[in-house]
Amino acid sequence: MKAIIIGAGALGLGLADFLNRFEHQVSIIERNPSLVSDISSRLDVLIVIGSGSSPSVLEQAGIETADMVIAVTPSDEINLLACQFAEQYGVPKRIARIVSHEYTNNKTRIDLKKVGVTDIIETEKELVGNILQYVELPGITDTANFHNGSVFLRGYRITEDMPVAGKTLFEFRELAGSAQMLIVAIIRNGESIIPSGAERLLPGDETITIMPRESYPVYMALINRPYSKIKKVIISGDSLVAIHIADALTSFAERVILVDPDPEHGEEAASQLNGVEVLGGDATDSDLLQEIHVESADFFIAAGKDMEDNIMSCLLAKAEKAREVIALRTDDRHLDLFTSLGIDHVISPRQITLQRILENVQIAPIGSLLKLKKVDLDVVRVVTGKHSPAVGKPLLKLDKLLKKEIIVGAIVRDNNIIIPGGDTIIEENDEVLALCHRRNLLAVNKIFRTGFRF
What we know:
Blueprint: E1 2-6, H1 10-21, E2 25-30, H2 33-42, E3 46-49, H3 55-60, E4 68-71, H4 76-88, E5 93-97, E6 119-121, H5 123-136, E7 142-146, E8 151-157, H6 169-176, E9 182-188, E10 191-193, E11 206-212, H7 216-222, E12 230-236, H8 240-249, E13 253-260, H9 263-272, E14 276-280, H10 286-291, E15 299-302, H11 307-319, E16 324-328, H12 335-340, E17 345-347, H13 349-361, E18 366-371, E19 377-383, H14 399-402, E20 406-413, E21 416-418, E22 431-437, H15 441-448
Parallel strand pairs: 1-2, 1-4, 2-3, 4-5, 5-6, 12-13, 12-15, 13-14, 15-16, 16-17
Antiparallel strand pairs: 7-8, 8-11, 9-10, 9-11, 18-19, 19-22, 20-21, 20-22
Helix pairs in contact: 1-13, 5-8, 5-13
């Protein structure tokens, strides 16, 4: 496959690295010469200096024979124009990252597909959606939605007050009744277990469960955490993301407070938000956190432009006894360190966007969609090929091939979600979500033997 990536920021480089590892032919278009020199030392890809909105630059990058264009520059206009040109060159897949809601809100009459875009990636929308997953069920350790939000993955720690505590996985399935769900991993004393049905759920275990969206209310009941509005959320930040988070949280919380360090931005936020208290101030000031009684907050979310301030304000909020703290950070380094210091969740916009691109547009035959935070376990997506040794066999008979180190958590077949059992038979073109250790990624590919598809 030949892909052209326009924009060599963190997201563009992440995409290029992923495709390059699977030996796809990658070209990168970047107008910043300083970024170009760094790319050439890290990746074996074709680099073209210039703008993705220039036909001559696109031709230098090989657009006439490209299978895919992924435009992820900071400029919506460049991304849209690049996709429009790519359509005229006959490129089948044309993906644009869009930041402005002007192009995608419900009131607009603009159809981006009519200007050449086949897939739209909205970073802020994905980011807000991810944060809401944590707020909807406080205490979650891992969370992700797949297949356009129809498949849920949730991590939660077992406590003695839960109906499932002390039960085997067989008994867990019985308690779930007709609701489909599957515990695909247990993390116990820092070690990951790919469980069998006889495995017992012990208080302190962290479970990773996969389910279709409609089974989520039953799951919440089984872990004794029924849905209810949280009382208070505090958001800090001077970014557009902070405004969108505050707006979205009014449906989840009785009281929402936005602390904005930029007076002008704060005025703009106040004019846009209904039901949100907008206060001026710096959340890295512990006196201010005490004044707004951060200790009574169910969530403190740091979503400012300064990533270091996000980390610092979360550490201070946690020290002041906020229940859960969430920090946005574009740099993926040292995430384990920050969580060990007490930050409950560090969210990377780059990782969320990368995951969504890899999932939605299927740009590789097999790829890691999500790495669980505390252990070496990946959720991977793979599409079964015609000659796969798994096709036509029930999962129970694949145990020798899977070596009990790979577990199939969900199957998407003709847009239907199947949470499999031992008698589930794999069919050709099934989209399989599997959980495995990273060392087994090649084994997953061999067993399911996929080919690239658009």
